Amino acid sequence: MNNQIDSSSSFELSSHKSLLRTHCILNKGTDEELSCWGYTDSTWKKCLYWLLVFLSLGTLLLIVHWKPELTCYLQRKKCPLYKAKYALLMTRFGIMNVAKVCILTEPVDGERLMSYTDPPTSVNTTDTSDDRARLSSSWLSEPENGMRYFDYQHTRYIWDNIRGSFTKLEDLSIGTTCYVLHEKFKGLSDHQRAGRLRLYGPNTMDIEVLSYWSLFIGEVLNPFYIFQIASIILWAIDYYYYYAGCIFFISALSIGISLREIRRQRVTLKNMVSTAESTIKVSTDEQVFVEKHDHELVPGDLIAIPANGCVMTCDAVLTAGTCIVNESMLTGESVPVTKTPLLQLEDEETYSPETHKRHTLFSGTRVVQTRYYGQAKVTAVVVRTGFNTAKGELVRAILFPKPLDFAFYRDAVRFILFLAVVASMGMIYSLVNYIIKGENVQLTILRCLDIITIIVPPALPAAMTVGTVYAQSRLKKSKIFCISPPRINFCGTINVFCFDKTGTLTEDGLDLWGVVPAHNHRFQNPVSDPSTLSRSPILLCMAACHSLTIIDGELSGDPLDLIMFNAIKWYLEEPGADAHKYDTIMPTVVKPCSSEIFLGEEHPFEVGIIRQFPFSSASQRMSVITRTMGESHMESYCKGAPEKIASLCKPETVPHDFHTVLHSYSIQGFRVIALAYRPIDPKITWHQVQRISRDKVENDLIFLGLLVMQNQLKPQTTAVIQTLKRANVRSVMVTGDMIQTAISVGRNCGMVAKNERVIVVNAYAPDKEHSARIEWEESEHPDVTAVDENTAKLVVPVEDDSDRETAPLLEDDDNLCSRSPPKEAYNSVNVSVTQHRKHLAVSGKSFHVISDYFPELLPKICVQGTIFARMSPEQKCQLIEQLQKIDYTVGMCGDGANDCEALKAAHAGISLSEAEASVAAPFTSSVNNIECVVIAMREGRAALVTSFGCFKYMALYSFIQFISVLILYTSRTNLSDFEFLYTDLIITTSIAILMGNTAAYHKLVKKTPPGSLVSVPNLISIISQVVLSFAFQLGAYFYLHQQSFYSHSINNTTNVTDTHPNGSRPEVRTWDSTVIFLLSSFMYLAVAFTFSKGPPFRKPIYTNVMFLSTLVVLFVLSTLLLLCPWEPILNFFDMMPLYASTDFSFRLAIYGMALAFMVMSVVVEWIVIDSSWLRCLYRFIGHLMKSQPSKYKVVCKEIKSTDWPRLGQVTLPSSNQDLRPSETYVDVNPHSDH
């Protein structure tokens, strides 16, 4: 008793301490990790805040709008989380937001729901049962105080009294056992449903589409437009009315276009994720099904799936019946998927949507058909609703994407800050200049502020996105759809591209090469036509072990299953009137097309499929339970990965040369499936079969043989891989298929060259006798294959046919297909015996062991690995993340379901799908081959180079105008209203819009565009152009001052005066402003041409007809202004009368300066910057700056210096070094010098 009191006291004490916490971490260790601080109102801080708002004339309100977290610092004070009115949240990426804490005082039905689930985490392992009960009840706050919660990014977090922190509101997808899902959720009362609806919210995914007015306010308050508004006010005060008016009009037009595009994107996304309102039958607490609107569904509801199908609006686990589902919206894969009921197990197996995805109907997927016979319904328990569903997670990933850590954008911000520093220096110069000359205060302030509007171009951010916009449009024309435009630039820096195999590198469809039966512990001769097999278990396995179904009168399902079933020439019949012959729940019947071959039977030969265990990547197999009509017992048939099936079979039934034969097929690129079966105990009844676990069915199997499929490469695959290789982009295969099959495909598509070696990495977890270890061996093992040194062609060993038995499988021995060893599914496998690059081949099992016991080797594995086989979807994602950790920019291309996580994790994920767009990946290609990879990379490089070019052009435009204005300030003058308009609007705007429309180059070259704006070549490029522009403008300025006609003031040459009454505006009609304006006009055109360099990333400039035409027109116009001035035009621009006051030689000299600048600008950028001697300088400067090389480059250097890995050796975790193995391990390469 005392112990219980002590335990309770200590528990309450720890609980009390936890309530005083002001900080907690939510979703720890995930991408959604949040740091949370509690804040409450502070009266004195609020008063001080509003005083500061008044003193700053509202500027502080703007700053707080841009930085919401400042409201917590300026108006509120920290407090314990349990009393917080506001939660200050910071993501793991440093982004901060404020969420209002709400209190739900109305009753909710969470306590009963939570009693079926485990708490998210345990306090400690020694909690008493009372503690655990208290812990479970702590999910909700005490009723009298109400439930405290806040919503962030469509996720609800509730207050947990015991832990003293907020925790994510969890549903039935977490911690609920399969048994509970079957037994405890038979229906809810209206009161319970109303409570849960308040707790979880409606079952909707409403994408908020703001009104144009709300969008307008939000857009106008953007720092970019605030800067524009301030600039327009400044220009208006300075009497630049025309210029200010035009910029105001352009800004308004830009805002309108931006609002339209933002709203269009939101409406598109809303239409993509929303579904039409519908009703569905929901069970009440009296177990009566009534119609309810789907937005009223809550976790725990039992729903009936309509017989004619529906679009799922929630995640629900099937508890009865079977569904055929199309999941293309979520996965991009349009192959129908069969969903079967979740097993009702007595043990404590916990339900997981990922583990039990074959039993889960996901939101957004379309149920095509339902199967349950008799009067029963197809039922499912709702486990997740709204944004908590699988579809909701994908939509949230689109709405709140992970920040793209792209150096280009970081450098752009830094460069703008640098421009601000330059502007401050210009302001200081102007201030000193005007003070020395005794100008009035108003003019001095205006001139200093005007410097900021010149050196920091407000259109810079928009100009940087032009290339991406054009690239997205071109991608769409190539049938590549992008839902995340910023990722297009990432395509330009990719240096590793990962590919799924089946359906991506190889054809979706398979060709049946043959069946290799096993009998009496031996493999028989291959059979090319399995329809000639007698009625044997291997034939029945092929007939029944699949997930095929009939949709709209056509046989549909997995391509492998279709090939297998069609090969035996049987017929599949969906149950109808004759279903009573088996049972009221018999789903499918298969039978031979020609029943005559089985004449003489008492009953027609038919096999009913009673139960199906669908294929899953985790189990690597599928199985069915069948009963042959007229038989008294049932049978189980199983097919799947050969290694997995062999491990489930009785050892005495597996041929002794199983691994040798399997290797001989897989190394040639064949896809091999193993078949097995076992009789079911006759005592097991029909109803028991419906509840039996697959583990009890899939053991002690009898091995039947191998199904050998040809999976040809797609015609485009080899060419694309070779293109990537020439471009120095690594290609990596990430597949769920066998490792030897993957190696063969890798060789034949060119990932592994014919003269390169493949080392298989075999990693073993520790056991009782051995510690964890890694063994390295050549893939072409001498015991299995040999190398003919004359032809270097792989020879597959064949056992003497006399050593094989012929089982009585065929009706007629003459039909026996005595076949030679399998012909290669691809080209001949050529293996060189000389020393060349080593490629690592790693299985999913080995990858898991290395991750756990040899994490320090993962960077080397990722750098050297080319083949990753038998990888689960989670491991594919982990591999992508590991590659990213060592500074690779990673692309991923896959065809659907098993690749979704990897596609989202990659910098650029491309899903091959017939759908125009899906939420499975940032890019979706409706052309089902990997040519889209090269197109995306070419467009990415073009977009990136265009962004660099636009950025550099805008920077040079600012610097040229900055230099012009500073020179003119020295002479107490400036450019006129229309001169500013001509340079900013006519020249710069048109060029910035059109220069990005140059298409991508037709080749993917080895050279890669720089990924950083502050790279040495870019900096030298910008600095050199600035120096040139400064030198030429200054030269023109001094040359002008030496002319006999020169006079600073217009009053000395004409009778026209352009001063304002208050004298605040300087003279603009001067020789200085006229000459500087004309020369600078040519400079803008020159740098635009210079930064539009074509190959090797873009097509030549002449292909961009609109841009080149604009340049020519502007060049001609500027030439006419200088050489053939027309007096009305001169007056319009407030220019001096060139024609009347100067001779032609002066104008020709200025024109010569302009042409000289153009030539020098092009020579410096196109020739000097890319010269070999400057590259040495870049490396030297990089060395002086001690720039860190990419991590993968360091790993590559280490691998080369140590010649890692060494064959025939074992790596142990303790010493982390290679040790000489025992005689069990041999050097499989006789020519190796290790």
TrEMBL record:
Gene3D superfamilies: Calcium-transporting ATPase, cytoplasmic domain N (3.40.1110.10), Calcium-transporting ATPase, cytoplasmic transduction domain A (2.70.150.10), HAD superfamily/HAD-like (3.40.50.1000). Pfam families: Cation_ATPase, Cation_ATPase_N, E1-E2_ATPase, P5-ATPase. One of its GO terms (molecular function) is P-type ion transporter activity. Residues 168-240 form the Cation-transporting P-type ATPase N-terminal domain. It is found in: Membrane. Its EC number is 7.2.2.-. It is an enzyme of class 7 (translocase). One of its GO terms (biological process) is intracellular calcium ion homeostasis. Belongs to the cation transport ATPase (P-type) (TC 3.A.3) family. Type V subfamily. This is Cation-transporting ATPase. It comes from Arion vulgaris. The gene is ORF113010.
